[in-house]
Amino acid sequence: MKPFAAIIARDVRLALRSGGDWLTLVLFFVMVGIVVPFAIGPDRELLARLSPGIVWIAAFLSSLLGLDRLFRADHEDGTLLLLRAADLPMSLVVLAKVIAHWLLTALPLIAATPLLAVMLAMDMATFLKAVLSLLVGTPALVALGAVGAAVTVTIRRGGLIAPVLILPLAIPVLIFGVGAISTGPGPDQSGTALLLLAAISLIVAALSPLAAALAINSSED
Amino acid sequence: MTLRQGFPPLTLTATGLACRRGERVLVEGLDFAVEPGRALLLKGPNGAGKTTLLMTLYGAIRPAAGAYAFEGADPDGPPFLHLFGHQSAVKPRLSLIENLSFWLSVNGSGGLDPHAALDAVGLGPLARLDAGYLSAGQTRRLSLARLLVTPRPVWLLDEPTAALDTQGEAMVARLIEAHLDAGGIAVAATHLPLPIGAARVAELRLGS
Amino acid sequence: MSIESAPGENWWTRIAHPGQFVAWSRRLVLPLSIATVLLFALGLWFAFFNSPPDYQMGDTVRIMYVHVPTAWLSQFVYGVMAVSAIGTLVWRHPMADVSMKAAAPLGATFTALALYTGALWGRPTWGTFWEWDGRMTSTLVLLLIYLGIIALWRAFDDQLRAARIVAIFTLVGAVNIPIIKFSVDWWATLHQPASVFRLDGPTMPPSILTPLFIMVFAFTFLFLVLHLIGMHTEVRRRRVASLERRLAQKGAA
């Protein structure tokens, strides 16, 4: 357990110390939410109806934006290579880094959700559902993102390609994430959607570290 | 500073080993054995495949042909390899001691205490400094200290004296000798002659 | 496993060794092409002259004879890629790399064709080119995955090292596709309680099924031919690249 915790602690410490990146992501998240009303008009009713989708799109885009940070620095200074000989398997290294990344990128977004809720005229029930849905769904986004980041880590200009790879795979997260907040005209399915979202999160969090570790271990070969 | 406890005896053998980078085979037909307490120096011009051979032994690249084995190693046990390569894996925004403590937690303990390890590489007084302020040579020393906090029987060293001054070179030689004294083995790619007892050193010339 | 490693005798090296593979599979191209042309001729004759127009959709039903085969291929080709990816990862089979790479643009093309013909068909039947129907939406997502894989191939400088990475991503995609399909279906029914036109209607008369089957075979054979040719091209491209590299090395030395 000690190496695992050490990786999380180091990543968090590095991010807090080298400052702005995670704050920039929060800023981006809030900005997407702010920009949307300019595009679709300030109609409070319309905004309230679209707010679940807007919040998720904002979270989706900001998590894709931060993807490249996950392994790039550690690959470039050789840390990733040395971690192969660490006293824990690469898949756990990836999992630790995914957890740290979630703490640094997803949690601040969720903390900033009240701001968007006010501006997008969400009611209290929707807001709580949105927070819950983001809490359950963002681990899947980060874990999927880890696969994209691992696959592109040796590509020098890989920053752009990882989001393009991961976006289609993350569509189910988006569907059930928004579905867990509001549903269509039929009977209320948000409970089902939340459960499905949790299932996807668990599956992805369990499997993607294996795939990402395989990609990292093949990266020098 | 000697590493007091001995290592379990471990022998590196290679038979007909060929190493490749991409599809290019750089070295082939290598046969060698490194007994406990011995070092193997890899010599050869740039591009001869020294780094590639080290990366192959490290397990990052699959051999193109042949095989190598660490006889006596427990395959289910903890990792027994240390790589000391071109990349320092030092985080500039962490202090020296934080950098070292991270590797201690990740690789396992049993060696020198991080402060003692910093003393051993001559960085003791700078422990609280951010690693970003170090010079290239000091960064190499910090990276080397990582090998001291976790005792592992096999050292794979890629140009261990690069960027180091004469004092630093002597220090590297001392550390390698201490490592061999404890029964470890070392494979080092280097241009410079390392002042280690000639009886314990074999040379392997690549790219001839 | 270099391109020029010594050719062996047994069947495995005959498949595995790129040069050998090209040598024996080149003979397959002509007969396969002829079979493809014959199947297309037969299928199109059935499709245009020997199958009835639908009582509701009229002659537009004939789009189906292109739409269904391409839709089938969009999934079949991904299957081929996934199997090749396993070959790359588990057996490090050099032809699996080549097969994976040659299949990706074909899969993307067939998927795009399926979407295009679907849109053409949708206009007269649904009154719109695009409907966010579950089937079409998941095909669209599949197209995005194909394009991502092609982009990933192109992003690597060294194609030999790219293969394992792309194989991992291809398999991740393969695991995800059922999840995507399920989620998109869930989403589509959620927003459209009234089901729109479905292809899998209760019955399909044999007069439609026969040309459909022939066309499915024709398109599958077309894929096989194109895939084989694509693989040959890729093997040659790699050989040229490796020869050039060797020449450059000799020049430098």
Automatic annotation (TrEMBL), chain A:
GO biological process, one term: cytochrome complex assembly
PANTHER family named in the record: CYTOCHROME C BIOGENESIS B-RELATED (PTHR30070:SF1), HEME EXPORTER PROTEIN B (PTHR30070)
One cellular component (GO) term of this entry: plasma membrane
Transmembrane segments: 21-40, 46-67, 88-111, 131-153, 160-181, 193-216
Keywords: Cell inner membrane, Cell membrane, Cytochrome c-type biogenesis, Membrane, Transmembrane, Transmembrane helix, Transport
Family to which the UniProt record says this protein belongs: Belongs to the CcmB/CycW/HelB family.
Name the record gives this protein: Heme exporter protein B
TrEMBL record, chain B:
GO biological process entries: cytochrome complex assembly
Start and end residues of each ABC transporter domain: 12-204
GO molecular function: ATP binding; ATP hydrolysis activity; transmembrane transporter activity
Bilayer-spanning residue ranges: none
Keyword Disulfide bond in annotation: no
Keywords: ATP-binding, Cytochrome c-type biogenesis, Membrane, Nucleotide-binding, Translocase, Transport
Cytoplasm found in the keyword field: no
UniProt xrefs under InterPro entries: AAA+_ATPase, ABC_transporter-like_ATP-bd, ABC_transptr_haem_export_CcmA, P-loop_NTPase
Name assigned to this protein: ABC transporter domain-containing protein
Naturally occurring in which organism (per UniProt): Devosia geojensis
Source species taxonomy: Bacteria, Pseudomonadati, Pseudomonadota, Alphaproteobacteria, Hyphomicrobiales
TrEMBL record, chain C:
One Pfam short name: Cytochrom_C_asm
A molecular-function term among this protein's GO annotations: heme transmembrane transporter activity
Residue ranges constituting the Cytochrome c assembly protein domain according to the UniProt record: 28-191
GO terms for biological process, alphabetical: cytochrome complex assembly
Keywords: Cell inner membrane, Cell membrane, Cytochrome c-type biogenesis, Membrane, Transmembrane, Transmembrane helix, Transport
Subcellular location: Cell inner membrane; Membrane
Gene Ontology CC entries for this record: plasma membrane
Function per UniProt: Required for the export of heme to the periplasm for the biogenesis of c-type cytochromes.
Record-given protein name: Heme exporter protein C
GN (gene name): ccmC
